[in-house]
Amino acid sequence: MPPSTAADALSPPFADFVMAVLATWRGSHLLWAEDGPWNVTAQVRAWAGSRQLRVFDCFYCLSLWVALPAAFLIACFRPAPLALPSLILNWLALSGGSILIERLTATTAAPAAVWRDEPPQG
């Protein structure tokens, strides 16, 4: 087996990466938009909303959190040593891939950015 190079550490096998992107999208979509089996994810969203936890409100933000363990799994099962740049690149790429799938499959338009000129009251 040839020695590992920096390029090996930054390029996971394609099939594993595609499966991780699909799993990230599935987990993010389940937590963000579906009720889940026995209404469990809807109850988790309601619980989080009652405590002002807004992590389930935005698919983009939620996909970052769901992609993090998937990025760790990709990094841990690779023959090259675990490297922080590889972990960060995979984390952002998995989230970005799941966002692309969501944008391609969504029946509504992407949420618009909100701009506020005045400071929030509070």
Q: Would you tell me the overall average pLDDT?
A: 83
Task: Note the overall shape.
Answer: globular
H/E element sequence: HHHHH
Task: Kindly estimate the percentage of residues that lie in beta strands according to DSSP.
Answer: under 5%
Oligomeric status of the shown chains?
A: single chain
Question: If you compute it from the alpha carbons, what radius of gyration comes out, rounded to the nearest whole angstrom?
Answer: 17 Å
What is the SS-derived class?
mainly alpha
For the largest beta-sheet, the strand count, sense and barrel status come to: none
The total beta strand count reads: 0
Task: Please tally the helical runs, counting DSSP H or I stretches of 4 or more residues.
Answer: 5
Low-confidence stretches: none
The share of residues in helices is 55-70%
> What is the first-to-last residue Cα distance?
61 Å
Describe the structure.
- The protein contains 5 helices and no strands.
- It has helices at residues 6-10, 14-33, 40-50, 59-76, 84-105.
- It has a domain at 21-105.
- It is mainly alpha-helical.
- The longest helix has 22 residues, at 84-105.
- The protein is globular, with a radius of gyration of 17 Å.
